[in-house]
Amino acid sequence: MTAQQQLLQILKHKIQHDELVLPTLPDVALKVRQRSAEPDISLNEMADVIAQDPALAARMIKVANSAFMGRSIKVTTLNQAVTRIGLSQIRNIAIAMALEQVFVSKHKQVQKQLDMLWQNSIEVASISAACLAYYNSQVGRSGLNKDVLTLMALVHNIGALPLITEAERQQDLLGDSRFLLFLTTNLATQVSVRILNVWGFADEFQQVALNWQKLEPCNPGPDYTDFIRLANIARDGYSDKEQEQRLLKYYMNMHMAPQENFMLHPDIQTVYQDVRTVFS
């Protein structure tokens, strides 16, 4: 039995018996989520929660000043940033900004793979948000929220994280990008749903993680999953190219994308760069 086959058996066994070590949501993200659920929470109190993590506080000021928020006047304090973002958005954006803390390993090769996974998640988030903005410009309000979509995109394949971390035990496999890609596309779905359930994410997040790899449009749609699928199409993320092309044409007919090479469209490219900048 090869090392790959051994690792696959170990991973499948741990998934089936719920023995895989799952990542935990950063403390500050948990506090933001808990406090944001309080009906009488004030903006100043929320700023105090975020201030407990200086790195997150700096990121929130950056978000408030970004084109992502559509504002031009700069803010300089966390209280100003939280006021600009607003309580309705602060929860999802703060959790999204804190998530990078999860993608950490002491093992150099594992960290390299986790960095790639995080950057891929940022790409999917940036592309899907840009396509949603384009869609809204074509058909009016879709009822879909850009910061909810951004957070969904960041966690849509979160199950790949503990699988890569578990692969640390087979260090000779960490450099095999094809094998790791197999792990993250074939085993991660069930793990992603489990993590999001443990983290207390809403069912719609779990449905995205469960269904994004299926090359079938949501009905009725478009839905959040459709925009994450579209982002993965842009990244050439599906092996069934014929079905991928059919789905892309469907999305074009739905005005979710203007053309086959839609990432070249200036409106999409502008929003894509704006979202990328938030995470840089």
TrEMBL record:
<dbReference type="InterPro" id="IPR052340">
    <property type="entry name" value="RNase_Y/CdgJ"/>
</dbReference>
<protein>
    <submittedName>
        <fullName>HDOD domain-containing protein</fullName>
    </submittedName>
</protein>
<dbReference type="Pfam" id="PF08668">
    <property type="entry name" value="HDOD"/>
</dbReference>
<feature type="domain" description="HDOD">
    <location>
        <begin position="22"/>
        <end position="215"/>
    </location>
</feature>
<dbReference type="InterPro" id="IPR013976">
    <property type="entry name" value="HDOD"/>
</dbReference>
